[in-house]
Fold 1,4-alpha-glucan branching enzyme GlgB.
Amino acid sequence: MFGSPNVSGVTRIIYPMNIAVQSTIPAVEQELGQVLCACPFSYLGLHKATDNKGLVLRVWRPDADDITVIEQPSGKKLGNMQRFESGLFELHLPRRRKLFNYELSVTSEGGHTFRVYDPYQFGQYILREEHVDYDALHRHQGAHLITHALNAKRQVKGVLFRVYAPNARSVSLVGNFNNWDGRLHPMASADDGVWRLFVPGLTAGDLYKYEIHDKDGNKLPLKADPFGTYSEQWPGLSSIVHDDSRYQWKDSQWMKQRGELYDKPMSVYEVHAGSWRRKDGNIIMNYRELAKELVPYVKKMGFTHIELMPVSEHPLYESWGYQPVGMFAVTSRYGSPDDFKFFVDQCHKAGIGIILDWVPAHFPNDDHGLVKFDGSEVYEHPDPRRGWHPDWKTCIYDFGKPFVQDFLISSALYWLEEYHIDGLRVDAVASMLYLDYSRNDGEWEPNRNGGNENLEAIHFLKRFNQTVYERFPTAMTIAEESTSYPGVSRPLYDDGLGFGYKWNMGWMHDSLEYMKKEPVHRPYHHGQITFSTVYAFSENFVLSLSHDEVVYGKGTLLTRMPGDDWQKFANLRTYLSFMWTHPGKKLLFMGCEFGSWNEWNHHQSLDWHLVDDKDSPHSGVQKLVQTLNKLYKSEPSLHERDLCYKGFQWLVHDDYQQSVLAYVRFCNDGRPIVVINNLTPVVRHDYCVGVPAAGEYKLLLNSDDKSFGGSDVSAGRKFVSEAVEHHGQEQSLKLTLPPLATVMLKLK
């Protein structure tokens, strides 16, 4: 870092005597006037006079009529500066030999007078850093509040800006502090491609962007800070200086006890922050209001985690956050960074973990964003066959560039470090893994081995997972990966990608396809509902019923179910019960927990009126999900071996004619829970099922119970096994199978 912190946390900045100006004054004025100056510290600030008689001070203020120099900390006026026609000011100080600090009393063209510290008195100390943590690049780039110690008694606070633009001709800082005038704050370049400038007097809340000229001197659209941590909404879209250290966390106990979840319950409620619930007049709730309403609801429903669809800053609300521009900025649509930290804090206080959707696969081509950042492809791949996504009309990162990998990994670590996030769900992993993803023949180029794998992206994903788990061992990474790519959630030493978990898209697709068929047709598709157990333990799976299943004309979970309204609700109840008793962690999108009729619409609230009537079938589904979560957490057999083949055993998988499924879930000590699913609307009396142990069984759940909105057909009053061999078991018992229902029995 530049300088070293003293005991009070103040950064002491040491700077050398600046060299004399080598260029002529007319050349300096021309470069500054055209905003093409790449080394302003060589011209501006204090320098040795060319005649070796003292010092000369140069200030570039084309917006000023008059400037007086005031020495600090003495307050002594050193004189008025001479103004050249271009806007360059000079003051010759023949008796001065040593550098000193000063303020400028500036009188603008309109007659307004104000005092500022000249940024160019603070020397070229800002040009290089000795030790850069490239995995945490956010600590070195972007806008950082620092304090410069003038002496033991006087300090100057301001903001140190750094931005990577390796092919730019010039970069200037513009903002509300200089009337967005690119002439006033040219930044200094260095051979590492980073442009830097410390601006005294700036504080949290100041708006800024970068004015960049490409290598040919062409002015580009103003760019937001790629490492900015707070952003303005449309139409300004500016970055905002923010003090990350201001918030005082209260979740130390949660962070201390947070641990791996492989043998623990993990039930995730997926949420879109802008449409979960809205206030009167369809007003979007902010982070603090969500903390007040969403957190108690999730706790009441028994979910262990909230997964937020992307809250990284994104210009297009309709993208749901999946086209982010600010990879380090929480969207200001719902409040400030501190407001979001409060939301996370309240989640942790309630014992609820937070997972964020994170999008490293692509980014939009908005002018103020990353695209052609310095006139060249800094972030995106230059070849459109690899740098442009035809489906989403977005740019694809160039994963072969070290800086791009550093940028993305730094983003991941920033969310985990700064916002205490418990997990990152990585979006669209399949699109990263394959060069021919969504491309026809001739639209992609094979890798160096002749294959279709994106070797650079694979290397990046492995490095990402390795870095996350090294630095945050109790956090988790989750892949949304829709192909059969091997070892997504296997460790790196086993040639895996290193993710903690993978969404089970196969289970989702097959089970939904099965459930939407009329029961009379289900016997002919029995394999769709049983096939998932063939590969259930090949990855650390999360069973996901996400937002993608309730949009784009697909209908909702409820409307996809066949039959009349009674059958639709009964089908949904048994489907959710099947999901909660199937091996794997659980994820359910908001609104699915009470059986919404309408597809999700990001412009409006969920249909909460459906559960106003506590006796409605929607309230029944909601109560069922609450009960399933309670059982999932309280019964070790339903979660301890979620990811292990020893936790599951088929009892009945071939009764396709009656569409009945029966299986056992085991915990670590072998205690069984028997699950029987009747996937037809027919009541089946005296159904005999083998059980793994002798004794009396207790009814844990009947999804046809009246309290869930069912027909209240009883499965029986007492469930005692008999020494009658059935389904490969020495013991069996008989019970009534309610229609379109799931029954769960536990050995007493």
